[in-house]
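I'll show a record.
***
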Amino acid sequence: MACVIQMTARPPSLSPLLTRMRNREPGLAASLLGGAVAAGLGFGTFAVLVMVLWVSSPYPDSGPGGALHVAGALWLLAHGVELVRTDTLSGAPMPVGVTPLLLLVLPVWLVYRAARVAVDAPADAGGPPPVPAQTVWTGVVLGYLAVGGAVALYCAGAELRPDWFWVTVCLPLVAAGSAAAGVWSAYGCPREPVLSALSVLPVSLRRLLFGADERARLGTAVRATGAATAVFFGGGALLVGVSLVWHGGAARASFVQLTEGWTGRFAVLLLGVALIPNAAFWAASYALGPGFLLGVGHLVQPFASHPAPLLPPFPLLAAVPDAGAGTPANWAAGLVPVAAGVTAGWFVARGAVRRPEPGGQAPAHWSAGRTAGVVLLTAMLCAVALALLSGLAGGPLGVAALARFGPVWWQTGGAAGVWTVLFGMPVALVVRAWRLWRRRTRDGEIPMQGTGVGTGTGSAGSGKQQDKTSVRAGKAGREEGAAKVEGRLAGKAREAGKGGTPPLGPASPEPDEEEMYGILPADDPFPGEWHDDLARASRWAALREAAAPRDLPARTSPAVTSVPPAQTTPPAQTAPPEGTAPPAGSAPPAGSAPPAESAPLPEATPQTLPASPAEPRPDPADPSPSDPGTPESPDTATGH
């Protein structure tokens, strides 16, 4: 019975392996499902679009199965998979490898969202922990590849079938890269995984490229590369638009010649829109100098264009520049890489000299050599980015003369790196120097407290000289004023001692001047008529000496009698109204002190003092070097 009670109250725990599997199973299952759903949504989108066009076509040449095969082939082509067309006039298979880059956006975005959602990061700090990154990445990639492999098997026997070599290369790369980006974004874009990925490089190469502050250099180079690539893409798209307007008649004629029905024209319009990013990178390669190919041996450059081969009419092909030698209008395309290089240099200079944070000091700026090194790193990244994008934008459309269309990737990448260094280097150095000069000038216009001058380099010498002069004048004035006040108060103390006034009590130590008034500025940055150093030092010294009791020689008077211990201290007398003399035979009120800046007096032993004649009050018209707030009679205590 005891054993039953023990088993009921405390069940045995599972093994660590089962516990780990139980905890990770929901995250892995959700990731697998998310990857499969992302692949299904992508394929379903293409299937719906193709089925709508097939249903609305007036002369469909295949059944629903053929339309689904075309949809699957287009979905695989969107991932960069090269297709093979078998229904040709010659009977030989023809490759189709030009990937519309706009179609690539859909699968990349779907995988990215699936990985980001599968992480299940909590909105608040108190929520459950997110699913591990490796679990999410593995599940999303495996789920996506499972559906992608099934689609490739389904299209393997169709007239437009995928090439299995490119299926095994492009499909996993797209899924893995997009899932990694989604997981990285869900975890807040940490920099540690990116820096740890650089550990595969040799130590000497990392030190040469990044130096000690590899995080700052790499971040600045990546931002500059992204901005330059955006300028390349935008400038290329602008060139395509201008060329389409310039060759508007030929573009409209080719659009009408392709098909007569509105369904076919709508399909041509969708294909042209999907190929606009490709045309933008073709135009960017044209502006860089290497140009692009319209078939093997037919090169289009700003300086000279070869005659194009016999091609089917298409609106984007109608925008190709005319064959022959280049004109100044063709050479004007060189403004695109110039703008990209200037943009990259400006971003590097912005990272080299950052603005100071609110309430903090300006960070240390990079030297000219380090700035030039970041420009070189940016040029390398620009070369890699343009080479990759130009390689994706082109491809084969057949064999023989149609084996190559688009830019040559290594030529485009190399030209992008050279243009970035050529125009980004001087811009980065000049903008860096200008930002440094502007920051020094802006800081120099603000006067520092206590000096009255700025911190700029031009006024440093005069500011130091004026600072030393004002400090010496302030010290001399304070010493002279303190000496006068001490002499005057010492004379009054001697007079009070002759009259038999006993000391008020033990003297408190005089506070340190720097400790009491350390919060005040050493000098007034805006001196006025009544606020000079001598007057202020004299007033503060007088008030301080008057507030603190001084050690006086003890003199006992024969007429003084002790008060019994049981007697309580009488209430303090109130001071007479201003302008009237105290009555004869009365002593000054106890603890008389200036109304302002007076310190509390220590309690004195209750004593009885003899009556003494009243001292005459000073004439207000009588000039005196002392401050109006300084008392003219010694501090005494009166007891009844």
Summary: Residues 16-56 form the longest helix (41 residues).
